[in-house]
Amino acid sequence: MNRSVWTALALTTGSVLAFAGFAWPLLASAVPADAQRAAPFVAVALVPAAIAAVALALDREMHSAKAVALLGVLAAIGAGIRIAGAGVGGLEAVFIVLILAGRAYGARFGFLLGLLTIAVSSLLWGGFGPWTPFQMFACAWVAAGAGLLPRIRPRVRTDGAADATSARSALAAVKRAGRLEIVMLAGYGIVASYLFGLIMNLWFWPFAVGAGTDISYEAGAPLGTNLASFALYSLLSSTLTWDTVRAVTTVVGLAALGPALLAALRRAKLPAAR
């Protein structure tokens, strides 16, 4: 099995295991009652193990000193931004760095950057807790997703015009493609902001709400019942507030800084970028 196939397999396996850790409230109803009580502890133990497996596998892709140095610099920048915004509800400016870096250097680089950014910021800020591995994977998926978005290539008309006219046409096509790319990234930032809030709510939702309410988790209840309760809980607790502020912050940051930062990142070409 070659390196690329092994890396893709490790990334997929680790992400599936981590998602199972996030989604335990929806999966626990399929197991016996005794196992339901153990599910939260299994989930918390599973996610760090998945992180270690994925990080070890993906480290083989970071085979150049330039890639390692750039990963370290961007992780430090992202960690600093995250710490600076700590305590300000929903202002996740770190998403701007993750999305642009994932877009510039590919999904695998973005995945590692998401993991390391949360790890470094949690270490420096003293914010380690049972939520940390979940944040690491969620941010890794945000950055990796930007690298998986479709490429936008400039469409240059070739009608036999003069060289100067052709050059202007090519330049205009590149600018249009650049604007479309930023619009696409901004749209992705909105979706990622809300999905991040949803998935981060999911794993601790049963702990956050007591029993007997319309938004409580009910072990053994039909999947549709728990999904409806979870949707209402998320809507009231984060979707209308934290997640919306996060989405607005991400869109404004990408619109204002995206073109210049994306161009700067792409000038530092990496052999491992996909």
From TrEMBL:
Keywords tagged on the record: Membrane, Transmembrane, Transmembrane helix
Transmembrane segments: 38-58, 70-101, 107-128, 185-205, 245-265
InterPro entries in the cross-refs: ECF_substrate-spec_UCP037395 (IPR017196)
Domain of life: Bacteria
Protein name from the UniProt record: Energy-coupling factor transport system substrate-specific component
Organism name: Microterricola viridarii
Upper taxonomic lineage: Bacteria, Bacillati, Actinomycetota, Actinomycetes, Micrococcales
